[in-house]
Design brief:
By secondary structure, this protein is an alpha+beta fold. It has five helices and eight strands; from the N terminus they run βαβαββββββααα. It has one domain: Alpha-D-Glucose-1,6-Bisphosphate, Chain A, domain 4 (2-Layer Sandwich). Strands 1, 2, 3, 4, 5, 6, 7 and 8 form an eight-stranded antiparallel sheet that branches.
Length: 166
């Protein structure tokens, strides 16, 4: 864990955030690999770090086997933000969900992500969902930046498609 950094606690989240948060972005993507391969990647030590998203560091802070309650710390692209995450859903082979417990930048009240993997013929459908509640003062800016946010967050499914096409 990073030391000497000022942390800001966020509100806990559960599955209801993916329906009730002020901003929810859902990105399903069809992949040409079986669900087991997608799961192997997202549950690995490097997780999505290998997808070339610019993640600076990803550190699981709980021992294996992972499950509900697992934690990790992630330094986002360009070092823009560091987040601590706690998993509240862990369905082995099918997906997981977590919320951000703390961040070093006080820009959101609540932030959660859901990763779902479903079989689809010989391949799979990977759906990445994010739910966030910005700080009150940033709400209007988030609404204005909606299309830009959707495009930026859309990098994850594009990266997944590219990574699994190799």
């Amino acid at each position: 864990m990073l030391r000497g950094m000022s942390w800001h606690a966020l509100k806990p989240a559960d599955a209801s955030a993916f329906n009730e948060a002020p901003f929810v972005y859902r990105f399903p993507v069809r992949l040409s690999v079986p669900p087991e391969r997608v799961w192997e990647s997202i549950a690995s030590d490097r997780s999505m770090w290998d997808w070339n998203l610019g993640v600076k560091r990803l550190t699981w802070t709980s021992p294996r086997p992972f499950g509900v309650g697992t934690t990790r710390e992630v330094v986002l692209p360009f070092g823009a933000m560091t987040v601590r995450e706690q998993f509240f859903r862990w369905d082995e082979g099918k997906g997981y969900s977590f919320y951000v417990t703390d961040t070093n930048r006080p820009v959101v009240e609540q932030f959660a992500e859901d990763y779902a993997i479903e079989p689809d013929g010989a391949g799979s459908v990977f759906t990445w969902t994010i739910a966030l509640e910005p700080k009150r003062a940033l709400g209007p800016l988030m609404r204005l930046a909606g299309p830009l946010n959707k495009m930026a967050f859309g990098q994850v499914p594009r990266a997944a498609k590219k990574y699994f096409a190799r």
